From TrEMBL:
This is GCN5 family acetyltransferase. The keyword Glycosyltransferase does not apply. PROSITE patterns: GNAT. It comes from Bradyrhizobium retamae. Signal peptide: none annotated. It comes from the Bacteria. InterPro entries: Acyl_CoA_acyltransferase, GNAT_dom. Residues 1-141 form the N-acetyltransferase domain. The keyword Ubl conjugation does not apply. Keywords: Transferase.
Length: 162
């Protein structure tokens, strides 16, 4: 298995992974919309034996410091619990930190994302339509955020998810 940046030839496979993983097309459309708007920063694919089996997208967002949103993360059902999602997320975190981003926000299951260092408590001071028990943040660089309060806004494409 390898993790690499998406290429134009991966777009149809990414759409399929997103649709199958989520059982609907909304997340696949989100990826397309983020890409079309220029808000995609890192779009990573997990490839096994030449087939795209997983995908993770890191996109621009507004925050009091340079921050990214991690969403969606998708792996085909038969590849779940094999480490593919973890490798996608870890590679995205490494790229983000190397590039100088100071934080990554994610909406998801705290039990899953906690293993990467995402923290619900550190996100609790940020105002967002998505604020709540599933909004988490991972500080990058110095391991502390420059501020623990403020307004954050995901890219406009997220509003279509409802």
């Amino acid at each position: 298995m390898i993790v690499r940046s998406e290429t134009p030839g991966d777009i149809a496979a990414i759409r399929l992974v997103e649709e199958v993983a989520f059982g609907r097309s909304a997340e696949a459309q989100l990826v397309d919309d983020l890409r079309a708007a220029g808000d995609s920063v890192y779009s990573l694919v997990a490839v096994d034996d030449g087939t795209v089996v997983g995908h993770a997208l890191f996109s621009r967002m507004k925050a009091p410091f340079p921050a990214l949103a991690l969403a969606p993360v998708a792996v085909l059902p038969e590849y779940r619990r094999t480490g593919f999602a973890s490798r996608l997320i870890r590679q995205g975190i490494t790229r983000s930190e190397t590039a100088g981003w100071l934080g990554i926000f994610v909406l998801g299951d705290p039990a899953f994302y906690r293993r990467f260092g995402f923290d619900v408590g550190k996100a609790s001071g940020f105002f967002s339509p998505y604020a709540g028990p599933h909004l988490m943040v991972l500080p990058l660089g110095k391991k502390e955020l420059p501020t623990d309060t403020g307004i954050i806004a995901h890219a406009p494409a997220f509003a279509k998810l409802g």
